[in-house]
Amino acid sequence: MKHIFGPVNSRRLGRSLGVDLFSEKVCNLNCIYCEVGPTVHLSCQRAEYVPTREIIAEIDTFCRDRQRLQTVDVVTVTASGEPTLHAGFGTILAHLGEVAGRPIAVLTNGTTLGDAVVRQELQLADIVIPSLDSALAESFRKVDRPAACLDLAEIIEGLVRFSHEYRGQLWLEILFVRGLNEGEEDVAALAGVIGRMRLDRVQLNTVARPPLESFARPVDQRRLQEIAARFRAIRPGLVVDLLADAPRQSKEQQQQAGDGQENRPDRLVEIVHMVQRRPCTAADINRTFQIGGPEKVEQLLEPLVRAGRISKRRHGDRIYYH
Ligand code: SF4
């Protein structure tokens, strides 16, 4: 299947089945920290980049396997790019609602919420997680490198408006890059926008995985804690999380889970698909596929690395497969 992946263990959502609406990256941003790679189609145009019926056929195939569907906590509509740019987005959400019987989450860069049609379609989702990395034009341009058709003031008005119309869970994600959007002026401008929105959570992130541009560096935890405290003070009860890695399993749990699993050939294909979508550590892969520990994952993947099918890259103190 080209458009369905997982379920994978998501830090935020549990066992998440991914639905990717594109075959190559379509986005109206080209963020310096992007894990997907450079934007192939930098566009604000909504279009059927992949036939809607092709995606729906894959969803139906997956959902017919009731045993596999049982392992899914949430269906996450995402994309190699911005999913709301797919013209069949609303149709696909409606179909998922009918056949999957699971909560639907949507990850969006939040830039299309000025469009009343997109806001209406998103009402079909149970959780919407839009991003906003800066409320200042210069930082927004440096971090997210938008297409010329985007206007930051319109994006912010769309986000604020959607937050008051939407009835589901709304989590705003902000990704901070060292030296670019973490200064006092940026934090004050973001606090101003958060103060105008109806939100369930704010999630603070930084460059945790290998970025598109090597100059995109992570912000240290102390600064993220300071910013979190600042946002919590905006409104009593506002939940502000720092996104962190999921807890590791004990060696014993890993061993039990991995018995006999590592040699399934379809596992290897699924692992390759997973690291094609985003860089992953051996521990990430083990959490999803229960191979029997990060060391076993490394052994399993070494022939693929030697054959050049996947490669390894260091980011901070971790090694990522991609
Ligand atoms: S991080 Fe998301 S919004 Fe930014 S370029 Fe990548 S896919 Fe697009």
Strand content: 15-25%
- How many β-strands, per DSSP? 12
Instruction: Write down the CATH class of the largest domain.
Output: Alpha Beta
Ends apart, CA distance between termini: 19 Å
Describe the fold and architecture.
A hairpin with a 3-residue loop joins β1 (4-10) and β2. The protein has helices spanning 52-64, 66-69, 89-99, 116-122, 137-144, 152-165, 184-196, 221-232, 251-258, 265-277, 282-289, 294-306; strands at residues 4-10, 14-20, 26-27, 41-42, 74-78, 104-108, 127-130, 169-176, 201-206, 239-242, 312-315, 318-321. It is built from twelve helices and twelve strands. It folds into two domains: 4-242, TIM Barrel (Alpha-Beta Barrel), CATH 3.20.20; 251-321, Arc Repressor Mutant, subunit A (Orthogonal Bundle), CATH 1.10.10. It is α/β, with parallel strands linked by helices. The strands form three sheets. The protein has an eight-stranded mixed sheet. Strands 3-4 form a two-stranded parallel sheet. A two-stranded antiparallel sheet has the order 11-12. Mean pLDDT is 89; it is low at 245-262. The radius of gyration is 19 Å and the shape is globular. α1 (52-64) packs parallel to α3 (89-99) and α11 packs across α12 (294-306). The longest helix has 14 residues, at 152-165. The chain binds iron/sulfur cluster. Iron/sulfur cluster binds at residues 27, 29-31, 34, 36, 39, 81-82, 109.
